[in-house]
Design a protein that fits this description.
The chain is of the alpha/beta class. It is 31% helix and 22% strand.
């Protein structure tokens, strides 16, 4: 069994970079039990990163009213993306397209998302209440991996 921990974010948009900042402490906590990857890519670009893994834990941010709160989601919790181009597909659409093409992508997904304010500041670092979620985020990622038999 192979586990991917995929840390997503945009380091140019302050709080939205929290997923990227989580990659290093998660990698230290997981050791060789999982492969940790981080990227600012989205949509169909994620298929290449997901291919070949049995399970995936995705770490990202999500707009919300309680900055720093961690929410657990599944791909089914995410609303479909209604856009005019395949360049803007979301994670559920990317997974569906990959499976439809016969690619081996994870069968199980967990998404751990840190709530961030809707308004972002270009070039800023994550605010303290968002960055303060990192220890709990790392704990929840390792706990999820353990539930699946990886730790």
């Amino acid at each position: 069994m192979k586990l991917l921990i995929l840390c997503l974010g945009n380091d140019l948009l302050g709080d939205d970079g929290i997923g990227l900042e989580a990659a290093e402490p998660i990698e230290r906590a997981m050791g060789t039990k999982a492969e940790v990857r981080s990227t600012s890519m989205s949509g169909l670009y994620l298929v290449e990163l997901l291919e070949g893994f049995d399970d995936a834990i995705v770490v990202d941010s999500i707009p919300g009213d309680h900055p720093g709160r961690i929410r657990e989601l599944t791909p089914n919790d995410l609303k479909p993306v209604q856009v005019p181009s395949a360049h803007f597909v979301g994670l559920p659409e990317a997974i569906h397209a990959a499976r439809g093409a016969g690619l081996r992508v994870p069968r199980r997904f967990r998404i751990l998302a840190v709530e961030i304010p809707i308004a972002q500041t270009i070039g800023a670092s994550p605010r303290p209440e968002v960055r303060g979620a990192l220890p709990e985020l790392v704990r929840r990622v390792t706990e999820a991996a353990k539930e699946w038999g990886y730790v």
